TrEMBL record:
Source species, domain of life: Bacteria
High-level lineage: Bacteria, Bacillati, Bacillota, Bacilli, Bacillales
Protein name: DUF1885 family protein
Stored InterPro entries: DUF1885, Rbstp2229-like_sf
Entries under Pfam families matching the protein: DUF1885
Organism: Priestia iocasae
Length: 130
């Protein structure tokens, strides 16, 4: 059974709607900063921090795992009346490593966007000023 976490863009978030290109730019930025962290530590951290290959579809991104510890994640973008959202879904065949990486990635995205994060376990984290 698949699980999902949702990053909701609240009225006080930096943006109320996200385009596919903006999400792609944030993913590229995440890869860039993890690569720089690895360079500072003299370690190939980029492969461990983001062990996925990004594949685009019309409405979403499929992050395919690049080694046996990771299967993949699905990122989709949508809109509701109250604002936009980014949904990260773990397929039924996802590993525990995928869930950990999904948690790291969704927290990063929610902090960058100052959004509301609904985690896999049902808890909510608020990254915008209330």
């Amino acid at each position: 059974m698949s699980q999902s976490t949702v990053i909701k863009l609240a009225p006080k978030s930096i943006k109320q709607r996200m385009s596919k290109d903006e999400v792609k730019a944030l993913l590229a930025y995440y890869q860039e900063i993890t690569t720089k962290t690895g360079e500072q530590l003299n370690w190939t951290y980029a492969q461990s921090a983001f062990p996925y290959e990004i594949r685009e579809t019309d409405t979403s991104f499929y992050l395919k795992g690049t080694n046996d510890k990771y299967y993949g994640l699905i990122l989709s973008i949508g809109e509701e009346e109250s604002g936009g959202y980014i949904k990260i879904t773990l397929p039924a065949s996802a590993t525990n490593g995928d869930k950990g990486k999904a948690n790291e990635l969704c927290k990063f995205l929610a902090k960058k966007l100052e959004a509301e994060l609904h985690l896999f376990n049902g808890r909510v984290m608020y990254f915008y000023k209330r």
